[in-house]
Structures are given as C-alpha cells and as structure tokens.
Amino acid sequence: MGTASLPRRKFDVVIVGAGGSGMRASLQLALAGLNVAVLSKVFPTRSHTVAAQGGIGASLGNMAEDNWHYHFYDTVKGSDWLGDQDAIEFMCREAPKVVYELEHMGMPFDRNPDGTIYQRPFGGHTANYGEKPVQRACAAADRTGHAMLHTLYQQNVKARTNFFVEWMALDLIRDSEGDVLGVTALEMETGDVYILEAKTTLFATGGAGRIFAASTNAFINTGDGLGMAARSGIPLEDMEFWQFHPTGVHNAGVLLTEGCRGEGAILRNANGERFMERYAPTLKDLAPRDFVSRCMDQEIKEGRGCGPNKDYINLDMTHLGGDTILKRLPSVFEIGHNFANVDITKEPIPVVPTIHYQMGGIPTNIHGQVVAPKNGNPNSVVGGFYAVGECSCVSVHGANRLGTNSLLDLLVFGRAAGNHIVDSGLKKQSHKPLPADAADASLARLARLDSSTNGEYAQDVANDLRDTMQRHASVFRTQALMDEGVKKVADLAERVKAIGLKDKSKVFNTARIEALEVDNLIESAQATMVSAAARKESRGAHTVNDYGDTPEHPNGRNDEVWMKHTLWYSEGNRLEYKPVNLKPLTVESVPPKVRTF
Ligand SMILES: Cc1cc2nc3c(=O)[nH]c(=O)nc-3n(C[C@H](O)[C@H](O)[C@H](O)COP(=O)(O)OP(=O)(O)OC[C@H]3O[C@@H](n4cnc5c(N)ncnc54)[C@H](O)[C@@H]3O)c2cc1C
C-alpha cells in the first residue's frame, strides 16, 4: 500500500491538538469562516489543559495595584534571561484582553464581592519589580483549566469547528521546498490511515511530560508534535529546560496547585521549620518553581526530609481553615483524601518536586509561525506551519516558566496565530500539490510494526526511558550523569527501532498507538539529554552541580557564553544555537542580573 491509495480529506487549516491552545486558535479560524479540522487523541475536554488548577496570569489589578510592566519584568526574571523579550512583552500586554474575552465567552471565574474576577498570588509574580507578591492569577477555584477548556469547547461547537476525536496524527507532510502541506493521521476506531491536506497546519499537541517517570502530566502527553516536527527536519528549541513543580503528591505524582501556597500554604521540613524563609527572604514559599524545587531537594539531601525515609517535604494548609480550603481549593482537598489519605484541613500533606512542564519546543515567532535557520537567518519562516501552546517555544518561558503563564500563553498565542492565519488570505489560495511520497514515512513506520514477529513491548522500552530520564536529567544535574544519560538514551533509541507489536488487529488497537507514541517520546528524550549535556552552565531549571556559584558567574549562570537558545536536530543528534532576543517591542530591555528572591 502506498501514498496514492490512501483516502484524502482537504481543509483550509488542520490543527493537531484540542487543548486550550488548539481550541483558542480554531475558534478564531472558525469564526472567520475557514474550514478547520481539529484532531485529538482524546475527547477535546480531556486534553491536559483540563487538569490545570491554579489560574491564568493577567495584571488586571483587581485586588492589588498591578500593571503589565511588572508582569513583564517578573517573566523575564523568571526565565533567567533566556526568554525573548519581544514575545514576553506581547504576552503580558495582551493578557488582560484575552482574560476578559474569556470572561465574556462565559468562563465561570471566581468573583470578588464587587463582581470583578478573583485573583490569587502565585510564585514569582510580584508588584513593583520584585518588592512583594501580587495577586495576579485569575482563578476558577482550583479548576481553572477545566472551566477554560469547557468554555472554549462550547464556543467552538457554536462556531462549527470540525472535530476529529480519537484521531492520531502520525507525521508532517512537507514538500521539496520545505513547506508543510498537512499530516497523515490514524483513525483509532478503524485503524485506517488518512492524508489530511491543509493550506496551513497548526500544532497544539501539548508537552512531552511523559518522558519522565514521576510526572504530573496526563498519559497522552507523549510529545507527538515534537516527534513529528523533529522527524521532518525541524529543530527543537531549548529542550534541556524542564520544570519540576515543587508540590507533586509524594509517591503519586498528582499535582497540588501552586495556588495552595498562593492561598497561604507553607512548606515545612522534618523540624517543622518554614525553611523557605532562609532561602528566599522576600518571596518565601512563593519564589519561582525552579528555585523552590531546588531548596526542597537541598533540605532532603541534608537530612531534613520528612517521614520514615526522610524523603519528602510537608505542605501545611491546616492554618487556612476548612472554609477557605473548601471554597478555594476543593479539588486539592479531594486529592489529599484520595491520593495521600490525608485530611488537609487537619494535617500536612507529603510532597516532592515532580516533572511538570517543558519550557522548550518547536521554535516560533510571536505570530505562532514555526521558524528554523535557513540561509543564515536563524528565524526563517517554515511555510504553512504554525505551533502554539506547550509544544511550541516562542520563547516566553525561557529557562523557567512562572505559574499561570502557560494558560496565558495558550490564549495569547492561540489567538494571535489564528488571527495571523486569517490575515494571510487563505480562502483565496489553493492547496499545493502533494509530493508522490507524502505518506511513505508513516506507512513504513506502520508496516514495520505490522511485520514484526518478535521484539520488546513498547511499554517496557518506554518505562526504561522514563527511568533513565528521571535519573539523568533531574532537579540537580551533574555533567557525568548527563553524559552517561546521552549514551543510555542513544541505546534506548536503538531499542525503539526494534519494538514488536503482538496484537496486529486494527479496531481500537491501543497497543499500536502506544508503540507509535514511543517514536515521539524518544525524539523528545534525545532532544532533552543531548541539549542538556551540551549546556555547560546553570540557568533556570537546568541546574548542574559542576557549574555552581562563583564570583564571575553568580548561581553558575554564564551569560557571555550561554545566553543563547539551543536548537537540536534529530538527524545526527546535531546542535546549533541562536541568539536570545533581549529587545522588547516598545519598552526598555530588562538587563540581566543575578536572580534572588
Ligand atoms: C496538572 C497540571 C496543572 C497545571 N496547572 C496550570 C495552571 O494552573 N496554570 C497554568 O498556566 N498552567 C498550568 N499547567 C500547564 C498547562 O496546563 C499546560 O501547559 C497547557 O494546558 C498545555 O495546553 P496545550 O494546549 O499546549 O496542550 P494540551 O492541553 O496538553 O492538549 C494537547 C492536545 O493535543 C492532542 N494531541 C497530542 N498528540 C496528538 C496526536 N499525535 N494526534 C492528535 N492529537 C494529538 C491531545 O489529544 C490534546 O487534545 C498545568 C499542567 C498540569 C499538568
């Protein structure tokens, strides 16, 4: 069977991913009358965005004086000066607008007595350039992502977006000029493969958090968009930067939102000490995530961890009172009960830093267009291809994302990409002709699985991969561990090529889907390990013991050599670098300085 025999469907735009970013983009397109298809491996409202708890960052100033300049400053500082300041300015300025839009769509935000949107403090968000925590996170109890995703889904249904539910995109289709012409996709129910042709293709496939063993992420977060982009020759940016969230439930991985600390929860060590006061005298428990995670790890390493094995930290909410907890953190209350057997109104809950978010991804500009180096231009636009949300790297989060800035990123850049596509006049354009071999790579991947007679189970290889990443790319890294990790992941890549599929049936064969996902996990893992081992400094979430605090390089950050973005290419495991954009759109640059809190 070859490309020519596959069924085809044509759309103006194909969007892969029905999370917050994909559905914000599709809404813009459908409202403009474009023919849009949105693919998702799961029902749209089960995308990982639904799990977001804490809030959306926007300087509405409803509960304390705030403005977008403070938000801009906090985000640049939070990124450890790896974020691009044009993109950060754009996001922080647009933030109030996209939040009010969402409110007008019917998003059920919590309210203040005067009717305005309730806002809570969050890590790293401050007033007056770092002076004190500020209330900036717009929240719907601790179910903000749930409320947002349902709001966007309803608006899309109204706008007549076409949803392809339980469809898995397999590979990008590019022509000889490098333009993107659509995707190949598998209909899970039948096992049939289709070609979905598009004038413009947009990836909104979310993160690859499942490359780690202990993760707050949904099982579907296997980095499919990253794998598809990498296999088609597009580099991945800054993949060494992975965020550990300070408060995953010990031994369960389930997230307890930073909103807990926003509402006043305190981290305590085995002595009951509020140790964050020692590390971050101003922001205390509300310092950014990379910083708090490292402090927790340090406490555990120095023997002040809690429990019989001294291997976790206690998150104490008992002083907040049952009423506040049930009103502002009802899901956290349930999680405590279900995953830790703890009544959080009466006793502390055991937590550990847990993998949460990828700062890197498919490189884009502020319009969501995918960019890659070409003819000496590091940011040359890839024709017909956009990416938004966690799978993209625009880069607003740099080396460390501030909490609430992801939901914001989805809204701002989902909307911006939608507008940019509408303005490009797609309606009048015709589809470019497909190359004769458009689907050959996907068909070869499927044929290999279908002809396998033995070989390892996909899940066994995936589990070894997750354990390797957990050990070799952790909260604190060492050069030796990372170098060893590069070799181990390369060995795992060989094992991935020899995975076997025992059940060859077509209808809803989840074993085939898992095997196909491992092809994407391995690209994401290699990008992470290789990029990490090459970055010989500490910055944001990439903290390497070998590159510690020195007078020339406070906190181990080396701006002269390493203030640059990594670009990893799958072919040959090759790295390139491109400069960070320190120039905002209209305001003055925030010059690099040492991060203290
Ligand atoms: C537990 C948790 C809590 C969080 N809380 C917050 C918070 O309070 N505030 C905040 O700002 N951020 C938070 N984050 C981060 C934020 O929620 C995510 O970064 C964001 O929701 C990702 O959205 P997305 O649109 O990029 O992708 P997702 O919501 O992950 O959606 C990805 C979509 O892509 C589809 N897809 C993937 N691969 C394929 C394929 N091959 N074929 C077809 N479809 C595919 C999936 O089916 C899905 O529809 C949290 C994250 C987690 C895990």
UniProtKB/TrEMBL annotation:
The answer, when asked if Flavoprotein is one of the entry's keywords, is yes
Pathway of action: Carbohydrate metabolism; tricarboxylic acid cycle; fumarate from succinate (bacterial route): step 1/1
| EC number(s) given by UniProt | 1.3.5.1
Give start and end of each Fumarate reductase/succinate dehydrogenase flavoprotein-like C-terminal domain.
Answer: 463-596
GO terms for biological process? anaerobic respiration; electron transport chain; tricarboxylic acid cycle
Q: Which GO terms describe its molecular function?
A: electron transfer activity; flavin adenine dinucleotide binding; succinate dehydrogenase (quinone) activity
Could you tell me what this protein is called? Succinate dehydrogenase flavoprotein subunit
- What is the species listed in this Swiss-Prot or TrEMBL entry? Rubrivivax rivuli
